[in-house]
Structure formats: structure tokens, C-alpha cells
Amino acid sequence: MSIEQVTIKDIARKLNIAPSTVSRALKDHPDISDATKKAVMEVAKEMDYQPNTVALSLRKSKTFTLGVIVPEIVHFFFSSIISGIEDVAYAEGYHVMICQSNEDFDREVSSTNALLMSRVDGMLISMSKHTEDYDHFRTIQKRGIPIVFFDRVCKELDTSTVVAEDHHGAYEATEHLIKAGCRKIMHLEGPTGLLISKNRKQGFLDAMKDYDLSVKDEWISKADNFEEGYKTLKEVLIKGDKPDAVFTINDKTALGAMKAIKEHGLRIPTEIAIVGFSDDPNINVLIDPPLTSVAQPGYDMGTTAARLFFDHLSNKESLEITHEVLKTQLVIRESSLFGKEL
């Protein structure tokens, strides 16, 4: 049996005062005496009164809900972003609806439609790696709903974005390997359709060029997960043309590459050094050897994206597109200390 929700009228009836007085007391209106406010708050608590959020949203033309779409929640980087978003949203009186695409384009489209049907006030989005059609994002814009892209951004749309210094981070990682004595460096790149993949690859190539080091075509290979990292390194090592270092698009790929290197009987970092990207400190410090990686400011990316949304929400008439670029940090651990015996 369902229990009817307590209303302002129920509180007013119990206190024998007008519903309008209860309403103003709940809003801490200065015209209401402290004694009345206290009495209303006590009865509201006693009766387990909860504001009708649906009615409130209809009156204010807002749902006080922010939609978020990420490729995966289990990833440390994206969970850090979500934490940042939620902290800012909570402070603004907003709830957050989180969807994950699981790197699936159709699921991303479905999540977008679900958030639209839920009448969210805005969306913060990081695209799936398979997204090449952007009509579902254009639909959001046509409805006048603010969008902020983060990390994996859509360059086809004129929206605000928050990204990390992917080019600089990749350059710094490659330069670190070069200064450690590596000369034959392999890069395992991400999907070519993602801007982060292009920027990290270019950072790698620019560092190699600046140090007058050549890059073999076969030493740039598509691999952006554990399985592909393992398979790619295994095939390279079987052919006998061993690199002395590997820089990967992300940490999962680096872990796969490390497994293949160890199975081949080679020592890390004595014979092959390796550097990842993203840096999950909960994992990278526990593997053997601990993985050097480029740390991304996930939490700061989340707070920045959320603040951009609230800026857009308060300035709809004079919307200013903003592109924020956050600094990365190379976290050096044992896996990249080329030539060292551990």
C-alpha cells in the first residue's frame, strides 16, 4: 500500500496556520517570526515532509539535474572526474545522472536520449572511441541545452571543452625515455578518430624529431587496451626487432605490453623501458616494476567542466565558448629507468 506524500497543506492544518505561511517559513522568509519557523520545521521533520521536486522544477523550468556520459565508470580517471562534477553540482543544489557508453556508439546515443527525456538542465560528455556521427549531440544543442565536452571532445560542434595537455604530456614522457638512454622507442596509439590519440601521437613524434631520432612505421601501432598491448608487443618481439622503450596511449595498454615483455624473458626496465598515460596510482604502484605514467588531473577536469556548465546556465543569452587546458604531470617510477638493474 502506497503512502501519500505529506504536503504543505498537511503541515498548515496541523499548526492551524495558512499554507502560504508554511511555505514562506520553509524558505526562511524574513517576514515570518523565528518561533513560527521553528514550529514549522519541527512539524515538517516529524511528518517526514519532502519538497515536491517535480512541482518545483515545473515552476522554475529547471529539473536541477545534470547529465553525465562517460566511456566507463570503473576507470580511475573517469571516476575521479565524476567526483569533481558531483562536488560542484552538490554545492549548487543539483543532482547528477550518470550514464556510461561502455565504448559503444549506440549505447551513447541511447544514453543521450534517456537524459533528454529526463529533462536534464545540461550534459557533460566524454565521447566513446567509436563515435563518428554527431547528430545526437547536435540534437542536444538544438534544444538549447548546454553541453560541455571533457577529455574526449567533439570538434565538430562549437561547445566548451575541458582537456588535458595531451601533446605536452606525451612529449615529456618521450623526452624522459630519450634522456634515460632509449633510442628505439615504440608508440602504441589510440583510435585515430579521437583528438587525444592524435595529440599524444604528435607529442611523441615531435620529441623524437627534436632529438633527431627516427621512428619506424611499424613501431607506431594501434593498441589501446590490455589485450591489444599484449598481442602487439608479443608479435614485435617474436620478429626479433626489439625496441628499447615503449610509450603507450594509456596504462591498460602498458600493462598488456609489460606482460608480453616479461613472457619473452626480457627485463623491465633493464632491457625495455615503458611509460603509460593516465596514471592510476592504486594500480601502478603495485605492479612489478611500478609503472611510470603521465598523470591527468581527473578531479580538476570534473570540477572545471561542471563550473563551465553553471556559467553557461547563468549566461544563456551571452554564451561564451571556453576551452580549458589542464596541466599533466609525469610521475616517474621504476618501469622507465632504462638500463637499471632492479
3D architecture notes:
- The mean pLDDT is 91.
- The chain has 13 helices and twelve strands.
- It is elongated.
- Helices cover 44% and strands 16% of the residues.
- Helix 5 links the parallel strand 1 and strand 2.
- The strands form two sheets. It has a six-stranded parallel β-sheet with strand order 2-1-3-4-5-11, with helices on both faces. Strands 7-6-8-9-10-12 form a six-stranded mixed β-sheet, sandwiched between helices.
- Helix 1 crosses helix 2, helix 1 crosses helix 3 and helix 8 runs parallel beside helix 9.
- It has 342 residues and is of the alpha/beta class.
- The protein folds into three domains: 44 residues, Orthogonal Bundle (434 Repressor (Amino-terminal Domain)); 131 residues, Response regulator (Rossmann fold); 138 residues, Response regulator (Rossmann fold).
Features:
342 residues; 6-stranded mixed beta sheet; elongated; 434 Repressor (Amino-terminal Domain); single chain; Rossmann fold; 13 helices
Secondary structure layout plus pairing:
Elements: H1 8-15, H2 19-26, H3 34-46, H4 53-60, E1 65-70, H5 76-91, E2 95-100, H6 105-117, E3 122-125, H7 135-142, E4 147-150, E5 160-164, H8 166-179, E6 185-189, H9 195-210, E7 220-222, H10 226-239, E8 245-248, H11 251-263, E9 273-278, H12 281-284, E10 292-295, H13 298-314, E11 323-326, E12 329-331
Parallel strand pairs: 1-2, 1-3, 3-4, 4-5, 5-11, 6-7, 6-8, 8-9, 9-10
Antiparallel strand pairs: 10-12
Helix pairs in contact: 1-2, 1-3, 5-13, 8-9, 10-11
